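Postdoc handover notes: sequence design on the structure in folder B. Input tokens:
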């Protein structure tokens, strides 16, 4: 069963990793997908791969901290595919260090991409979805770090916590337009970042997960699919933890 037939979606930061997994799963369920990333070449490759699989996809490079670029991204989806029905604000960066060593520049850079980027994406999608008059779903990717805080990530944890507040406030504002806004908090997920961890460190972290395994990007993608689809038609303003029970 295709849950998103006839719908169009934008996924930011989707040239690789969790973002690409989300875009792929949405496309597999019938959505036309805009692959958006600051890495233009990576976005082109990802979109071409989906098209080769028989999916509808285009690449649109975008810096999510650029107001005009984000507005154009939302408009491009509507102009290319006829609508914008799903917006997944996933783009992010890290600049880890302790507060004593962290520069203000690195604090602002992370907050700007994660939090300001999600705000710009939510605002742009809300504008288009209101005008369409057919509702829609916005999914913001937070992190379990926004719930518990991570050592050396005051910037990242603050931004991810801020996304929760943004999600709930935006959900209240957009509900009358039948636009739903929800957040996902991934836990420990198999990505390039976790692959670079020392094996013993990763093993200790996995040992703290009640379900006994590291998460896969597809675990996040399936949660995003649920929230994007009509299966979640009466769900808005929520935060879904996809962390295997870690930090429950």
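Designed sequence:
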């Amino acid at each position: 069963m295709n849950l998103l037939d006839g719908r169009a979606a934008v996924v930011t930061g989707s040239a690789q990793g969790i973002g690409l997994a989300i875009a792929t799963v949405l496309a597999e369920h019938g959505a036309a997908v805009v692959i958006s990333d600051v890495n233009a070449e990576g976005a082109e490759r990802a979109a071409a791969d989906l098209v080769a699989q028989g999916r509808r996809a285009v690449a649109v490079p975008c810096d999510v901290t650029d107001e005009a670029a984000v507005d154009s991204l939302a408009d491009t989806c509507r102009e290319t595919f006829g609508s914008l029905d799903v917006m997944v604000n996933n783009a992010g960066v890290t600049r880890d260090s302790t507060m004593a060593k962290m520069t203000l520049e690195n604090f602002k850079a992370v907050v700007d991409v994660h939090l300001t980027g999600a705000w710009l994406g939510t605002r742009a999608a809300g504008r288009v979805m209101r005008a369409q008059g057919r509702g829609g779903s916005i999914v913001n990717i937070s992190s379990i770090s926004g719930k518990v805080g991570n050592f050396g990530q005051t910037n990242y944890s603050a931004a991810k916590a801020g996304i929760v507040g943004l999600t709930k406030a935006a959900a209240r504002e957009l509900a009358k337009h039948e636009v739903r806004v929800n957040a996902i908090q991934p836990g420990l997920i198999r990505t390039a970042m976790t692959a670079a961890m020392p094996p013993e460190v990763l093993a200790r972290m996995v040992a703290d997960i009640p379900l006994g395994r590291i998460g896969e990007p597809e675990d996040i993608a399936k949660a995003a699919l649920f929230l994007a689809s009509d299966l979640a038609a009466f769900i808005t303003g929520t935060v879904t933890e996809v962390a295997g029970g870690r930090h429950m």
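Context for whoever picks this up: The first helix runs from residue 17 to 28. Don't rerun without checking with the PI first.
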